[in-house]
Design brief:
- Helix 12 crosses helix 13.
- Strand 10, helix 14 and strand 11 form a beta-alpha-beta unit.
- The protein contains 15 helices and twelve strands.
- The strands form three sheets. The protein has an eight-stranded parallel sheet with strand order 4-11-10-9-8-7-6-5. Strands 1-12 form a two-stranded antiparallel ribbon.
- The chain is an alpha/beta fold.
- It has one domain: TIM Barrel (Alpha-Beta Barrel).
- Bound molecules: flavin mononucleotide (FMN).
- Flavin mononucleotide binds next to helix 2, strand 11 and helix 15.
């Protein structure tokens, strides 16, 4: 299978599966526990039907949007994800370049494999820096200062990962950083030698956002221990309010799911919230963001930019979320499989296909700008 034969999410996923050693594919593909939330994320869009309007003159469609003060050409962005160098040797460089080409925002994870400074310098499009809350308050302050100095526009604190999710696929294969593969997991690498050649012939794997704090050589702190030992489960609203104040720019919280928390985010001065269950990788049984969206938009949508992520695979998924009141949506696996399948050309093809789908869907709905999308065009199926 070749890139030109990839026409949708499922095609990219298939190609990524061919290219990646099993444990790495499963790290991207998997969710927590029984993966109920992971499955529900996409399924929830199917509970919602579209009611189009016709004969409205739809030659030109404008997909641009302003979110958290950032002007984007598209209402979808690449949500921050960890360890991209493992999926393709160009990692974040490929994703950032593709996002910039399509005029949209790119999130750099604190577990990213390219430095936020390098990425900030390489492209003009808005950049998010995503981080976790550490026990070491000095480290939190230093990370924010580093992002500020680099010129990052939006700070994002992920609040749904105060401890690592129970990802049983990773336990089975032994996927961890540093690798602790089981024999079966090791065999999966042996049968994908092309990945290994790319991996060893390119620059060394690093976590430049955390270099001084996480040692991948098997020594001080593995990623598992990073979550269990370095993050601070005592984090509370006062701590975050202090960070929002000291950032003094657009600050958003990723992983908000309840209206009460959404209101608190408004009160402490956040510019945005992202409804997210981390792609079903943290709390299994957590509600899909799309199912929770209307309630949150009704609670705070006039005071803060509400975004969502999880399960987005199609233009119609984006259209439904925006019709319910989301300002923009985040992509995760929808760009990670294309990255693994073909690097930057893969991510560009995925963004291009999604843009074309959304544009076509807007025309079929009788809308020429995102502001025309509304709940009047949606009907929800009653629960079975
Ligand atoms: C492989 C992988 C790694 C991720 N790493 C991070 C991360 O470092 N920080 C973070 O806030 N979210 C992370 N996420 C969650 C994504 O930002 C996003 O919330 C999620 O992927 C959306 O669901 P989707 O994959 O169904 O689109 C990760 C997701 C995946 C699949």
């Amino acid at each position: 299978m070749r890139l030109s034969q990839c026409h949708n999410f499922h095609d990219f996923r298939r190609l990524a599966r061919c290219r990646l050693p099993g444990p790495i594919f499963d790290y991207i593909d998997g969710g927590a526990d029984d993966e109920v939330t992971h499955r529900r994320n996409t399924a929830s869009f199917e509970q919602c039907d579209l009611v189009p309007n016709v004969l409205r003159g739809v030659q030109e469609v404008d997909l641009s949007v302003t979110v958290m003060g950032q002007k984007l050409a598209l209402p979808f962005y690449c949500s921050p994800t960890a360890l991209q160098r493992l999926f393709h040797h160009r990692g974040e460089r490929a994703v950032a370049a593709a996002a910039a080409r399509y005029g949209t925002m790119f999130g750099v994870s604190s577990l990213g494999t390219v430095s936020l400074e390098e990425l900030r310098k390489a492209h003009d499009t808005p950049q998010i820096y995503q981080f976790y809350f550490h026990r070491d308050r000095g480290l939190n302050r230093a990370m924010m200062q580093r992002a500020k100095d680099a010129g990052v526009e939006v700070m994002m604190l992920t609040v749904d990962s105060i401890t690592g999710g129970n990802r049983e696929r990773d336990l089975r294969t032994g996927f961890s950083i540093p690798f602790r593969l089981t024999l079966a997991g090791m065999l999966q690498f042996v049968i994908k030698p092309q990945w290994g050649i790319q991996y060893v012939t390119h620059e060394r794997f690093r976590l430049p956002q955390l270099d001084e704090h996480v040692d991948m050589s098997g020594g001080a702190v593995s990623i598992g221990r990073y979550f269990s030992e370095m993050l601070d489960p005592s984090m509370n609203w006062d701590d975050v309010a202090e960070m929002v104040r000291s950032w003094n720019g657009p600050f958003c919280l990723k992983g908000i799911m309840s209206p009460a928390d959404a209101r608190r985010a408004v009160e402490i001065g956040c510019a945005g919230i992202i409804l997210s269950n981390h792609g079903g990788r943290q709390l299994d049984g957590s509600r899909a963001a799309f199912d929770q969206l209307a309630e949150i938009v009704d609670a705070v949508g006039d005071r803060i930019d509400v975004m969502m992520d999880g399960g987005i695979q199609r233009g119609t998924h984006i259209l439904k979320a925006l019709s319910l009141g989301a300002k923009a949506v985040g992509l995760g696996r929808s760009y990670l499989y294309p990255l693994a399948a073909a690097g930057q050309p893969g991510v560009e093809r995925a963004l291009c296909l999604l843009r074309a789908e959304l544009e076509r869907d807007m025309k079929l709905m009788g809308c020429t700008s995102l502001g025309q999308l509304s709940r009047a065009n949606l009907r929800f199926k009653s629960a079975a």
